[in-house]
Amino acid sequence: MALTYSAGSLVTARGREWVVLPESATDMLVLRPLGGSDDDIAALFPAFEDVKGAEFAAPEPSDLGDQRAAGLLRTALRIGFRSGAGPFRSLAGIAVEPRAYQLVPLLMALRQQTVRMLISDDVGIGKTIEAGLIASELLAQGEATGLAVLCSPALAEQWQGELRSKFGIDAELILASTVSRLERGLDLGQSLFDKYPHVIVSTDFIKSTRHRDDFVKHCPDLVIVDEAHTCVAADDTSASAQNQLRYELLRRVSEDMTRHLLLVTATPHSGKESAFRNLLGLVKPELATVSLDSEAGRKLLAQHFVARKRADVRQYLTTDDGLADDTLAEKTAFPSDRFFKDETYKLSPAYRALLDDAIAYAGERVEEAGSQGKRQARIAWWSAIALLRSLVSSPRAASQTLTTRSAAAIAASAEEADKLGAPLNSDAADSDAMEGQDVAPGAETTENAGARLKDLAARAKKLEGVEGDLKLKALIKHLKALLADGYNPIVFCRYIPTAEYVAAELSDKEIDGKKRRGPLGTKTVVKAVTGTLSPQQRLQRIEELAAEAGEDAAARRVLIATDCLSEGVNLQHHFDAVVHYDLAWNPTRHDQREGRVDRYGQRRDQVRIITLYGDDNGIDGKVLEVLIKKHRQIKKDLGISVSVPDETSAGVTDAIVEWLLMRGHRGEQEGLFAADEVMDTKAAQLEKDWNSAADREKASRSRFAQRSIHPQEVAREVGAIRESLGSAGEIRTFVRESLGALGGVLRTAGDSGGSGDDFTAQVGGAPAGLRDALAPVVGAEIIEHDRPIPFRSDPAVARGEAALVRTDPVVGALAAHVLNAALDTQAEGERPARRCGVVTTDAVTTRTTLLLARYRFHLTLPSRSGEKQLVAEDARLLAFRGSPKNAEWLSQEEAVALLDATATENTDPHFGERTMTRILGQLPETTAHLESYGDELATDLDASHRRVRTASGEIVRGLSVTAQKPADILGAYVYLPDASVSASVPAVGESA
Question: Which of 587, 686, 825, 981 is at a distance of 20 to 30 A from 9, taking alpha carbons?
């Protein structure tokens, strides 16, 4: 008859020791290797394989380490924990080190029976991490069994990568491009959402009636909606058909009040109260109508809504937050500011003449069409805007627009003409999707206009290059200045032809068989990313650019991009400046572009922003003055971006175009004065509406500031996490000392943009086992050529760098090597950590023994899917004076302080071995105290789980925690008093 092993017990199989996991059954054991990771989990069948119960082997008294051995072993053990003690079941197993402020949404979520939240933190704070933390915790606890992320198709692969690499959640992509392949693998009558428990779904794909019903019927019990503001509209505006379909999808998903729902957006209402209310109504129906001016309304909202600016979290858990001291203070290194510089250029005479002729043509067409009915008028209008915007963009875009038929030309009505023309010509903040919006629009609307437009197109083509295109010449000048100052800029263009043209002009060329060097120098790599590439290809192109530039400090990167990269894609590790080559007609688009580099993880304290605008093209100056600068001022005053009211801003840009066409076609002074007056009136109305939106936003930020979780509560949980899993200082010391002991060559990082704690390490002299473990993580080439590995104290690191946090894969590989070497006395090479040690020191006046004990706890967590059986691990230091039989136990603080004790003289190895043998033989005398302490830890763990779930009695009812006995003694270390030191010197645990 097969033996039954409880979760957390040790077994021996396949020549090694394993920990039994809760997923095991009577006939099958699910095991994790002792000291191994989740990647090494295996299933064994006791009926077919030899499995035996195992006791943790006692330390070898002859295998003595030095004064560092205990601390290194303890840290290596804690880094390897995948289910650490503490109130969060997933935190030890994820590959990301959350900032303290990112725990706030998680704490809010755990206080709800069904999690319903609107996460609206500012751009770059880490909303994806916050949503991922909640998702991984709900899945780990059994409160959720499946996950669906609804997002733009352009961001789907990024979401997939984030969930897999940071949270260990493998999600299937369900997009228009993948659904046919996935459906071929379904059984008869099976839904995609039944087969794949975790999915990332294109919102635009799933919102159609054909797919929506199946999704709603089989929807997972946890849904995350990215950029949720695109799924609602204000009551006083005519929402697009796409918005209406999205809203209907979310309304039906949210109707099931047992479904967890996380809405994520940095712009929850864009200045429109009714849009904000509609969004809140998806979270909780009462929030759509409750008075938010009342205390009860604000209290209800505070349970479900979190919205913070960077200034709120830049310094967190300090005395300013009401804490007694700054022990747990955390500084998040956001760039302090954006440095704006508006640079002008003038048109060349030939370009000026081309623009005047084009404006004259467009004005004639608009006037002529006005007498032919509303449909023709709207078609001509969109054609005129397309022509003007492409001409201002670049000669290449102008040439393509002049020879392409207008999308609006096929419209059967004025309304259809607006529907077809607006997306390609405007930059609305709530545009349905960035995809496909960077193509150059067409301007041709009638057959008989062909010859005239072709002539204009030919003239535009001849203007390519710095002689005819002074805008390009100005760009090169400003790029050279940025590159000389050490910046790596992104140049944003409105249209694909412009981006391709600029990239070609900046790159090396081959003319008549001879290579001509680009204007930015040999060490500058230039590449373009546009909507012609798939989302995955865009990321690959960016990585190719970074790789091609290499690690040479003199190398520079220049990325030419369209707005296909202005949302969602994080570029702060490779770029630190933005050039707006083309002005967007909505300043929110500028903010989105700048937000790709101005975010957490950016090394520059100041991101540079250059805006190029035409001094004499009639459009740019007014757009800059009325829209862009006003937006900047509001953001500077409030600390956050406030979206421009789309309808009012469209009226302003329309007035600018009307003024330009009137000037170009008639030149009549009276008409121009009238147009000026209309433009001034609309600009004044825009400013009034915008200021009103900013005032509402300021008031709402003040009224709805996050107050449901106090910093003291966060500090308590952060302290518990660090006590269980290790602090940043402990990890940094471990990495430095371990690498140094293993033959690594460490150097201070110097002027690399990091902090004074940063350093680099070369591991060419380290044991082969460590080099083999690091090669897949940092890259085989770095290990083979013994290149320095940069270690950063800031967790937001670039590719090829390691963060000094326990979740970093490089730190994990190092810890696994140190732990395995400590457990294997026959391991080859240096072994920094040992399970025994005898140290003579002036830190004690009486023989003191330090024990490193590993505790395992059995948790029964009640959840909606039934009881969940889990195992938690904890490593604790316990110390006593005297003999084990008559032990005088020290406090936790006194035990930890022994790790800092230094040897004051050498200890004779034979004496040390005899001392160690005697102590180990007497350790059974300490069993009662170790078990009692384990029960205390179990009680504390139970209390911590109940504490973070205080708001829901049903969640904590049935919760139980028990300690598995006996505890494992991983290490024993004896500290002997230095006889040469006077007994009057205070020692650990004593006072003078």
Answer: 825
User: What tens digit of pLDDT does each residue of 606-649 get?
Assistant: 999 999 999 888 788 878 787 888 778 777 776 667 666 666 66
Q: Which residues contact 353 (CB under 8 A, 6 or more apart)?
A: none
Before 966, cis peptide (omega within 30)? yes
To which residue do tokens 């009462």 refer? Answer: 286
Q: 223 near 150, Cβ under 8 Å?
A: yes
pLDDT digits 0-9 by tens, 308-340: 888 888 889 988 888 888 888 888 888 887 899
Q: Is 25 exposed, middle or buried (0-12, 13-18, 19+ CB in 10 A)?
A: exposed
In which band, very low, low, confident or very high, does the pLDDT at 696 lie, cut at 50, 70 and 90? Answer: low
Ordered DSSP codes for 548-585: HHTT-TT-EEEEEE-GGGSSS---TTT--EEEESS--S
Query: Do strands 960-963 and 198-202 pair parallel, antiparallel, or not at all (unpaired)?
Result: unpaired
Determine the Cα–Cα distance for residues 55 and 852; give it in Å rounded to an integer: 16
User: Six-digit token pair at 736?
Assistant: 């430095």
Provide the H-helix boundaries in 15-95.
Answer: 69-79
**For residue 573, what are the CA distances in angstroms to 459, 490, 503, 750?**
41, 12, 21, 18
pLDDT computed for residue 991 by the predictor: 43
Highest mean pLDDT among 124-133, 178-187, 683-692: 124-133
Determine how β-strand 16-20 pairs with β-strand 29-33: antiparallel
Angle of helix 127-141 versus helix 153-167 axis, rounded to 10: 60
Query: Where does residue 488 rank: exposed (0-12), middle (13-18), buried (19+ CB within 10 A)?
Result: buried
8 A C-beta contact, residue 122 and residue 171 = no
| Amino acid identity for residue 667 in this structure | G
Closest by Cα among 502, 382, 500, 489 to 443: 382
Contact yes or no for 318/304 (Cβ under 8 A): no
pTM of the model: 0.81
Distance of alpha carbon 663 from its chain centroid, rounded?
49
At a CB cut-off of 8 Å and minimum separation 6, what does 743 contact?
763, 765, 766, 767, 830
